[in-house]
TrEMBL record:
One of its GO terms (molecular function) is DNA binding. This is HTH lysR-type domain-containing protein. CDD domains: PBP2_LTTR_substrate (cd05466). Belongs to the LysR transcriptional regulatory family. One of its GO terms (cellular component) is protein-DNA complex. Pfam families: HTH_1 (PF00126), LysR_substrate (PF03466). The keyword DNA-binding applies. It comes from Actinomadura craniellae. It comes from the Bacteria.
């Protein structure tokens, strides 16, 4: 389509809605408040249109349901992977698209804009009253460990067998670190920021796999989440829990009033997957009326993830 055709269509839509959707500047366009308000419903309409086409299409490539999830890094290699595996085993035709979630503060915006229907983030959500309509489901705990390179001739250590260590005790320990990311608790972020100038950065890498590999090669110690720490321990790394960064809960958040059938199916699968926990979550709360908030469902899940 030509630019003029698109412009005419946009003008026609604005006239029909009686609202200006874009600020037009010399260098381009940006969404107005009305445009932002339309963005989420428009994406949901398109998503439901694709699902309607899939329901009647004979083309298997066109008939695959799609689920969009936005996730913080700690959730990707932990409980979310387990829930996704169980969901895809039961729904092998579904395609899952996972987007990066920059911080838990972005959860409400991501859901409202329709970028994703489910977010996997740190809980509880600290998003104020705007997040009251969201339902949540804790999946498990996320701990942080200090992983030291293996010592020659020593047997592989078991995760968490060494005493906890604080950031202040790492001031003279060379580390392989990643660029700062808002994935920990606020208190932990404050601790890292306070200790940052005193930490010895031997290397800063962008890939999580590189950080672990370099630690195992003996370049320097590093900080690892629960799942990667357990894998590193099997390779001989010596682990110690990082004091102040244990028991961080990760889980799902979604808006029951706008969730598509695929999203609701995923939520039901997530509840079923966590039902094996001694502290099994309660079933999801029903969607509230349009003029009232939805009740959050779920209770803390087994921290042994």
């Amino acid at each position: 389509m030509t630019q003029s055709t698109i412009s005419q269509s946009v003008h026609a839509l604005e006239k029909e809605l009686g609202a200006v959707l874009f600020h037009r500047t010399g260098r381009g366009i940006t969404l107005t408040s009305a445009g932002h308000g339309l963005l989420g419903p428009a994406r949901r309409i398109l998503r439901e249109t694709r699902q309607a086409e899939a329901a009647v299409s004979a083309d298997p490539r066109r008939g695959a349901p799609r689920l969009d999830i936005a996730a913080l890094p700690p959730a990707l290699n932990g409980p979310l992977a387990e829930v996704l595996a169980a969901f895809l085993r039961s729904n092998p035709g579904t395609v899952v698209h996972v987007h990066d979630l920059g911080s838990d503060q972005e959860a409400v915006e991501v859901l409202a804009s329709g970028t994703a229907e489910i977010v996997a983030t740190r809980l509880p959500l600290n998003v104020g009253r705007t997040g009251d309509r969201l339902a949540t489901l804790p999946l498990g705990a996320y701990d942080v460990y200090v992983a030291h390179p293996p010592s020659p001739g020593e047997e592989p250590a078991a995760a968490g067998h060494e005493p906890p260590i604080g950031l202040t005790e790492l001031h003279d320990v060379p580390l392989v670190l990643m660029p700062p990311r808002p994935i920990l608790s606020a208190s932990m972020e404050a601790m890292i920021e306070e200790s940052g100038p005193h930490l010895v950065r031997r290397a800063v890498v962008g890939q999580r796999e590189t950080r672990t590999a370099w630690m195992l090669e003996g370049i320097a110690a590093t900080l690892l989440g629960s799942r990667r720490a357990a894998e590193a321990a099997r390779c001989g790394a010596r682990l110690a829990p990082l004091r102040g960064a244990t028991g961080l809960t990760v889980g799902l958040a979604w808006d029951p009033r706008t969730a598509s059938p695929v999203a609701r199916l995923f939520v039901a699968s997530a509840y079923a997957a966590t039902a094996r926990s001694p502290a099994a979550p309660a079933p999801p709360a029903p969607a509230a009326p349009a003029d009232g908030p939805a009740r959050s469902g779920g209770t803390p899940a087994d921290p042994g993830t």
